[in-house]
UniProtKB/TrEMBL annotation:
This is MFS transporter. It comes from the Bacteria. The chain crosses the membrane at residues 50-68, 80-99, 176-193, 265-281, 288-306, 349-368, 380-399, 405-424, 431-448. The lineage of its organism: Bacteria, Pseudomonadati, Pseudomonadota, Alphaproteobacteria, Sphingomonadales. Keywords: Membrane, Transmembrane, Transmembrane helix.
Amino acid sequence: MTRPRVSWLLLVSAVCYALWLLAAWGVEVEWLKGRTIGHEFFEAQDLPALAMGSVALVLVALAFRWVPKGGWRWGNDGRIVGILIALFALAAWAGRYALFGNYSLSRDEEVAEFAAKAMHDGWLARPIPPEWLDYRRAIMPEFFSPFGADAYWNSAYLPLNSAFRALCGWLGDANLSGPLFLALGLFALRRAALRIMPNRPDAAAVTMLMALTSTQLLVTGMTPYAMTGHFALNMVWLALVLRGDRLGHIGAGITALLLAGLHQYHYPLVFLTPFLLWFALSRRWGALLFHGAILALAVFIWARLWPNLMIDLYGPAADVRPSAGVADKMQSLAERLEKWRPLLYMSRFFAWNNLLLVPLALIGLWRIGWRAALRGERVALPLGLGALGMAALAIDPGYGWGYRYLHGFIGSFALLAGLGWASFKRPDSRVLGASVLVALLAGSFLMARAEDYVAPYAEVHRRIMESGADVVLVDPRGGRYVTDVVRGPGSDPLGHPVVMHIGWLTPKRLEALCARYDDVAILDISAFGPLGVGIVPWGSRWIAGLREQMERQDCGRVIAP
């Protein structure tokens, strides 16, 4: 009788994930008793998905003898890969409407949509009508550009992600931007995989499989987040560099300049700078000087020239302290590192991606051939330095589907996973089929949980839009991130109704607002609480005083749940 075969790759991966989960639960929940949005997502999404996936891996590993064999030859057929990429991008576009109801949850996404709408309407920054100047911060309370902020509304982020959304809007649907970036990145990833592993089509297929089973890639592609653009342009840059010719390097240089202008200029540097070391180790001095100069130029353009252009066009910084440029970015990074939570945030990355992605990637790095790598002969070295470096930072992401600060490195992990697969003497494709089934199981659960989380906020927004009021004042006390529902219809801050954060008003301005409009509505915890928005214990004496003033003036009606 043939002894049952066990997949040690699946079994060891499952055990490692289980131990990681136990450590994350013990430290973050039991010891630190964390109550941030990251902890809420961990308990509601990541922990159950990762636990469910680990158990499934164990069951498959122990019953490995009966798992049917699969094939990898589809990865060598460009037509099949192209169809799979198109279907993946189409799923992202459909999911924008089916999963999220075309609603952007976070302020990051909303300001990207606002800037795209402004560009679509012909503005780089939207002028504020004189009658609304005193209410400008109540209408756009967060993530606004400081330049000319006393007369203009603009996004705090750099423009290229929103510019691409505006272009897609002109083509018919701004929500095509994420899926198109996604498709571009996946095609570039395949080109890079074929150049790195030209004689191993099975390993190139593993690379694509890791990407095409990433719930993080799929769901983030449904949103206006710039992270999908970072994934795409990182892979385009890599594919161009791997060409090795002058045209490829020039194209990569242009791509790097675009990357830096997507939303924050410093974000791509973690991916790009390890390649400077790679060029140095391989003694490619021309490439080193060229790409080093490109990175310096990118920082100069987006950290110096762009702010100066904004000052020339719209005026100096107002309403907030002026930006300190590069020093300001470093201070912001230091502040976020104080919330260093690797157990928490890496659990999110594990759960939202194929559970073999990281194990195979670590195997690929382990078997890199370090002598050759230190001679600059292994592209896995810069890929690993960037990916593991960003993972080690474990910066607080706030919102995001998966760990969004590693989003631009999913391609790096996938390529390393392909190299890990190529290092096996007798690779067994059955583990891949098992990982796909587990990814579909966990991904379905995570998408359902994402929809459950977004739906109450989308419903609150719908109630505001259908209130019939001239002005809606949002009282966010007691709610988690309720400030994010302060937005106008269709990213128009002065649509009907005009939505404001009551906490940014003064008694005098509130009195004038109540005198000016007959129908002022209030959205508070009595409405968003029953609708399912997360409740957190916080209050504001300032807002309480403004609500008392409204009662004395007999101003405002509360929107019913």
